[in-house]
Amino acid sequence: MNTLIxxxxxxxxxxxxLAAAVFAGFxxxxxxxxxxxxxxxxxxxxxxxxxxxxxxxxxxxxxxLVAAHRVDLHRxxxxxxxxxxxxxxxxxxxxxxxxxxxxxxxxxxxDPIQFLSVPIGTTTMFVTFVGSALALRRKxxxxxxxxxxxxMTLLVPAMGRLDAQVMQPLGLPRLLLAPGITFAxxxxxxxxxWRRLGRVHPAYIVGGIALLVSIPLRxxxxxxxxxxxxxxxxxx
Length: 236
Prior knowledge:
It is a single chain. The protein has one domain. 80% of the residues lie in helices and 0% in strands. It has helices at residues 2-31, 33-36, 43-67, 71-101, 112-115, 117-135, 140-152, 155-167, 177-197, 202-221, 227-235.
């Protein structure tokens, strides 16, 4: 019984840790914006922050329900979760394209058209993990791991903010924070599987590696000749 409780408790603790990381990344520009003196946010950014927060809170609630053996409520709430995931994906893509078309929404020194590959790539990974988790919802071991990987995709935009707010002012190497923190969470999930099962579940192996490889790939795609006509078509 204790092993069963610990197995379900890990995902609730992991989602709580992910929530803390996302909060830290967006504290200055969203959650604690009033205290930090950051400029006002546009309406799409407010909406994005609210939907993303609802997703994380919902994921934590779902993990707690499973730990409490309330699978019936977990399944009912899952329908709402699928709608929130779809709404988040659509809103992010719409906002990203709108920002790129308006000539902003990219880090200093980056071309918004080139940078558009990053939010689109991040959303693609999120949708892939959520869609796979829903398709495999009857296979609990796959489902819960894929959902955790989906929430891990939110680390990239969150750590991107910390990269500019912390790494750059301290003179530390940039572009390492997002993959580094993401790897730390994936390694934690791998270690938990290894401790419990004596092996790492295939969902974490394939999904974790795909998530890590995708982080530099999203940025690199923006600099290719093939990306520019696609991005210009989207923004036009």
